[in-house]
Amino acid sequence: MPENFSRGNSLEQLEGLRWPPPPADTTSMVRNVYELRRRPVGTLEPHELARLIGQDVGLTWLLPLAVNILRDSTPRQAEGGWLDDDLLYAVVTRKPEVWATAPELAHELRESVAVLTDISRDLRQDIDTFLSALPGDDA
Predict the structure, then answer these.
(1) How far apart are CA 107 and CA 7, in angstroms?
(2) What is the DSSP string of 53-113?
(3) Which residue in 54, 78, 126, 139 could disulfide with 90, CB within 3.0 to 4.6 Å?
(4) Residue 48 · residue 94 · CB < 8 Å
């Protein structure tokens, strides 16, 4: 996954692929994903990143951004602060093949989720599934 890219670019610009307008009878979620692909990735809020990542859109560029957000917020959660569960869920539920292509990023996420304490049982199961799918200490 690229480390340095312009966060002022949209996914369309980064991928070099402009999607046609969504079909007229499409859902609001699909329309939202199309719209978010046109926005500069650096302006996307965590819930917007979660929406795109959850749809497997732009993972090459969005997963590093999401892992950075989670890395910065998980220590605060461990101290009683707030954590964006939607973003965490979207990130840890990506297929193992995604993480196999980004082992350094997976390792960084592993370190971040290790400090989480106050999370739901369901999310804990998703985190455990993510962790169990990672290679050993060489991730």
Answers:
(1) 23
(2) HHTT-SHHHHHHHHHHHHHHHHHHHHTT----HHHHHHHHTS-HHHHHT-HHHHHHHHHHH
(3) 54
(4) no
> Are 42 and 100 in contact, with CB atoms under 8 Å apart?
no
The DSSP H or E segment spanning 51 is helix 46-54
Taking the whole predicted model, whether its pTM rises above 0.70 is answered as: yes
What is the DSSP code (8-state) at residue 43? G
| Model confidence pLDDT, tens digit, residues 20-44 | 999 999 999 999 999 999 999 999 9
Q: Report the half-sphere exposure of 119 (CA within 13 A, side-chain side).
A: 21
Task: Please answer whether residues 57 and 37 qualify as being in contact, where contact means their C-beta atoms are separated by less than 8 angstroms.
Answer: yes
A 10 A CB-CB count for 10 gives 20
For the cut 50, the answer to whether the pLDDT of residue 53 exceeds it is yes
